Amino acid sequence: MAAALAFFLTREAPQPLPPFALEASGAAGVRSPPKSAPGVTVLGPDARLTLVLRPSTAVTGPLEVRAFLAQGDRAAPFHPPVTVSPEGLVRIAGPRDTLFPGVSSGTARILLAVGRPGDLPPDSETTVTSLRDAAANARGAWILAEHELRWVDTAEPPP
């Protein structure tokens, strides 16, 4: 028992998370994407989306990632394929139809929360509110990144 206690006391705690930068890119799938505000990714019918959350410094230890899709005042859990590198780089990529089946047009915000396992609030209807609440994250246990997406139903015209 003493050996187990000594191991527990000497185990190194994970380092706090550094700031992360969100990079979004995608082939719009339309010849001339409709004009949109900066920071909005336009996705046509055949588009591919890539989202990368890059830490300012390498992250050691495990990370948990949760994604939500928010439209208006409603947000729902979203389960895209997520990869996390050993340095903490988070990547989501895929074709529009695979990532967002059944979505043909409109706008939404994708929210990505990254934290240590067990540090993110439990899934519920209030998760997004909790993630945005600075008081709930007073010790900096997670980061939240948001990006606006716009789906268009316009197919690429022939050349």
What does this protein structure show overall?
The protein is mainly beta and 159 residues long. The protein has helices spanning 2-10, 96-99, 127-132; strands at 20-27, 40-43, 48-55, 64-71, 74-78, 82-84, 90-95, 106-115, 142-151. A hairpin with a 2-residue loop joins strand 4 and strand 5. It is globular.
Radius of gyration: 19 Å
The best one-word shape is globular
Question: Count of DSSP helices?
Answer: 3
User: What average pLDDT do the residues reach?
Assistant: 79
How much beta, percentage-wise?
A: 35-45%
Largest sheet properties: 5 strands, mixed
In short:
The chain is mainly beta and 159 residues long.
Keywords for this structure?
12% helix; mainly beta; 159 residues; 5-stranded mixed beta sheet; 4-stranded antiparallel beta sheet
Sequence-ordered SSE layout with sheet pairings:
Elements: H1 2-10, E1 20-27, E2 40-43, E3 48-55, E4 64-71, E5 74-78, E6 82-84, E7 90-95, H2 96-99, E8 106-115, H3 127-132, E9 142-151
Parallel strand pairs: 2-9
Antiparallel strand pairs: 1-3, 3-7, 4-5, 4-8, 6-7, 8-9
